[in-house]
Amino acid sequence: MCNPPGVVLSATLGGGFVTHRTVSQGLPDDPRARVTAPAPGCPVEIALAALRGRWTTLIVRELLRVDSYAYSELAATLPELSDKVLTERLAQLVAAGVVLRTRTPGWPPTVTYELTPHGKELGPVLQALWDWGARVPAPPTAEEADDT
């Protein structure tokens, strides 16, 4: 069987074939967009690494809502998040250049967190992820999977 250029036939679980055509999705014409394996310098990998871990996107969401938060104020916005995980995620976001941590001397000293300019750029990114996720069916729960 001969396929036209750019068309790939793939077998499906049902045994039939599906035709796929390569379509540009507006990816940048950049050599980094043509890698064949994950690379540390890939911009997508860098962005995903900065947002890795449960709760990270929710922390960024809360910081997008205000100019800055004291640690206790931020913790109060996410009451189910443990102090340990909040501290770890904030350190991760600071290291990634997404969040700025400012310590003000005094007694007691105060620490505030705010998004850097790079962090503020994540607003439309998180909105796009939300919009995409809202269109994709949720995976079945463990109970639903057992029923099939």
How would you sum up this structure in a few lines?
The protein has 148 residues and is an alpha+beta fold.
Describe the structure.
The chain is 42% helix and 16% strand. With 148 residues, it is α+β, with helices and mostly antiparallel strands. It has a 3-stranded antiparallel beta sheet. The protein has a two-stranded antiparallel ribbon with strand order 1-2. Strand 1 (7-11) and strand 2 (17-21) form a beta hairpin. Mean pLDDT is 81; it is low at 1-5 and 7-18.
Keywords for this structure?
148 residues; alpha+beta; Arc Repressor Mutant, subunit A; 3-stranded antiparallel β-sheet; two-stranded antiparallel ribbon; 7 helices; 16% strand; disordered N terminus
Q: Mean of residue pLDDT?
A: 81
The CATH class assignment of one domain is Mainly Alpha
Proportion in helices = 40-55%
What are the secondary-structure elements, in order, as H or E?
EEHHEHHEEHHH
* Strand numbers in spatial order across the main sheet: 3-5-4
Instruction: Write out the CATH superfamily name of one domain.
Output: Winged helix-like DNA-binding domain superfamily/Winged helix DNA-binding domain
Shape: globular
How far the N terminus sits from the C terminus, by CA atoms, comes to 36 Å
CATH architectural category of one domain: Orthogonal Bundle
Low-confidence stretches: 1-5, 7-18
Major β-sheet, in short?
A: 3 strands, antiparallel
Number of strands: 5
Beta content comes to: 15-25%
- H/I helix tally: 7
- Overall structural class, as computed from helix and strand content, comes to alpha+beta
